[in-house]
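Standup notes
- DV: blocked on the single-chain target, sequence here:
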Amino acid sequence: MEGNNKQPKVGVKAYVVFAFAILFFSGLLATSQEWYRAIDFTVLNGAFGKISGEAGKSFTFRGAGGSGARDGFLFALELMPAIILALGVVEVVEGLGGLRVAQKLLTPVLKPLMGLPGTCGLALIANMQSTDAGAGMAKEMYEKKQIDDGQRSVFIAYQSSASGMISNYFSSGAALFGLMVGPIILPLLVIFVFKVVGANLMRAYLRFEAGQVAKQEGKA
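- DV (later): unblocked, structure below
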């Protein structure tokens, strides 16, 4: 019985897979022009083709000026490729032992930092590059009972603040790089710090609520 309770050993292959997953979701290779840029989530996710319009304008299949349920359906359709790709990669990483490495290496960091297990590491990294991928991975972890309801709330607080910060910062924010007097990386670090602060505010609120419920039950 003792042998059945032991955790599976984490081999070299699992560490290699975990390192690949971090590189894949990190966005570090997204702007590279070399062949290995294909090892990147954003590059593999790609983009929809353009439909030529009048006056040199071009549109995706979603078009422009839509509204209501129909436009909402097309917007949801745009999100599907990123979510499906991200969850598919995570399933492969999990099958090859990569999530056990995340649990082992990242739990000592994420547990005191935000009260989250190490398995949230990949979703945390994915959220820096894609809103949809991080959200889908968090949902799947909750359904698999890898995180509880409170941890899910903390993780949602982290993800909701500046979601997809790397891709948004280096695309929309690039217009302001010429005006910056400090290092370009500094605002990105500030954004990340406040994402963690937001997660801990939710963590503190949940603790407060749990304490209030315990007091009410004690009085009853």
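- Follow-up: Residues 1-5 have pLDDT under 50 and may be disordered.
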